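Lab notebook, bench 4. We co-purified these components, and the gel suggests they stay together. Before we commit to crystallization screens, I want a quick structural picture of the whole thing.
Request: model the full complex, all chains together.
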Amino acid sequence: MAVYTDVSDDELRAFVAAYDLGEVLSFKGIAEGVENSNFFLRTSRGPFILTLYEKRVREEDLPFFLGLMEHLAARGLICPVPVRARSGEALGTLAGRPAVIVTFLEGLAVRRPSASHCRAVGAGMARLHAAGRDFAMQRPNALSLAGWAPLFARAEAEADRVAPGLAGRTRAELDALATLWPSGLPAGIIHADLFTDNVFFIGTELSGLIDFYFACTDALAYDLAICLNAWCFEPDGSFNLTKGAALIAGYESVRPLEPEEARALPILARGSALRFMLTRLVDWLNVPPGALVRPKDPLEYDRKLAFHRRVESATEYGWRK
Amino acid sequence: MAVYTDVSDDELRAFVAAYDLGEVLSFKGIAEGVENSNFFLRTSRGPFILTLYEKRVREEDLPFFLGLMEHLAARGLICPVPVRARSGEALGTLAGRPAVIVTFLEGLAVRRPSASHCRAVGAGMARLHAAGRDFAMQRPNALSLAGWAPLFARAEAEADRVAPGLAGRTRAELDALATLWPSGLPAGIIHADLFTDNVFFIGTELSGLIDFYFACTDALAYDLAICLNAWCFEPDGSFNLTKGAALIAGYESVRPLEPEEARALPILARGSALRFMLTRLVDWLNVPPGALVRPKDPLEYDRKLAFHRRVESATEYGWRK
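Here is the predicted assembly.
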């Protein structure tokens, strides 16, 4: 939950006046999003989300994110669409920060996804990959193999404070993945953060995808590996094979996996579990005093990593040839 | 900002199913309110606010608060109205807490009120007082004279840690007010917490009052004294006489003050400043570890108190006979 920046009503009104959005009727900070400040904004034209980009999002990446949302929406994917000011610009400045108004999506994020939610998110992700195919911009994945070692360097000395042995087994995992990491897999635009908070449903129907601020160009199957981690484990740490099978089948109903993608899945799952363990570990060790955000537990992903290390083939995730 | 309780989508859907509100379309925690957890809820019937009452609101007081909102709304005051379930009950249970769905009010809370906002809030408060006149229930003000000493007892030993001399001058103020506190003033329903966050505007038009969870039966002019504190001081601590005059004139445009109310205003202003200083002081000294709420500065009200001690008559607040 997060609202990092205060916006005065005068600043807000001046900002909205640059758009064809009519009068501001309501404005409330939303307890969602850990990277940015988000506000629910209602104007006489309808509901919108106003996002202020805090320092964790690099300003030079914003044209990629905003362009991608426009591109995907134009191809029928339901996602927030940046609203352009009368100047033609989608990106503005509010309270000293880069700021964007996007369309509001209906729908609920599920806390406890069922297999049918997993199937729907698999299919939705594959539609995203298809819709992104002809997007012209590129953005390397800063949180893939090359990014993990520098991230670990920031946490290594204190990792054993979080759990004894964590530093050693993370180092071993980094070394192993440096050797095992696949290359040459089908690549394109991936969401890279498709956790349950970023997928909306109305009933069991997927109603939209949000939060494209980790989107990048990488192996498509890596996105699937992230979702296996985010959607298919139970709160007790066990892997739910029915959900895994539903996620993969949903994905393949739109875009069948290549054989080499299926073969790479266990390694991609390890890599994506390591990525979330590392970012959570760094956050965990760097909670600023007086922080309003409670960090997420890195050990959840350390345990998932241990699970994936024992997996030998994609069939153990529910994949069927 | 606060969302203290997690609500799962299954719990939410089951809860909303007891109402004639159609399908849940959206549900987001709101970074507002320090006593309760508040959520923005959109159903196919429109926008609503869902409130979960956390432990600071006493459950036995809820029928008073909910009954009051219904009563005031029925008399034309724009305030949230509790929505009744098909059972006829407005009060339900969600995630183990008392929970209520109320109607959504449009409007913006102003951060930097102008004199015209002050005039509007004065008039709105007087309309609230008038609309509350025939409300049948009573609720004593737990945060008036009799409540301050026990509150201070919880903070006295540590008060000088917050500011040297604070304990001594607060004790002296308590003693002085015990002697000076007026009785027999015109009484009725007061809001008792009409800070800027609880008053919505569209432009300079007042569009609604919210958050009735401190409402009680007390001297009407005490409510005006609270607003003098909350609306008429500048960020640098100075009192803005133009705003004070506008607030009082707005109030009197609906309900003229009795001479004894005007006479009591400086003492009532001291009492209300002391009340907010004390509750903030207790919160300041009792921030739980890992709290997601940043406490408000008690010294802001210690300084306002010092201002009021030097005031000799209501004319210094801008009152004109």
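Chain A touches chain B through 37 residues (CB under 8 Å). Worth comparing against the SEC data before the next meeting. The beta strands of chain A are 24-29, 36-43, 46-53, 92-94, 97-103, 108-109, 187-190, 199-202, 205-209, 216-219.
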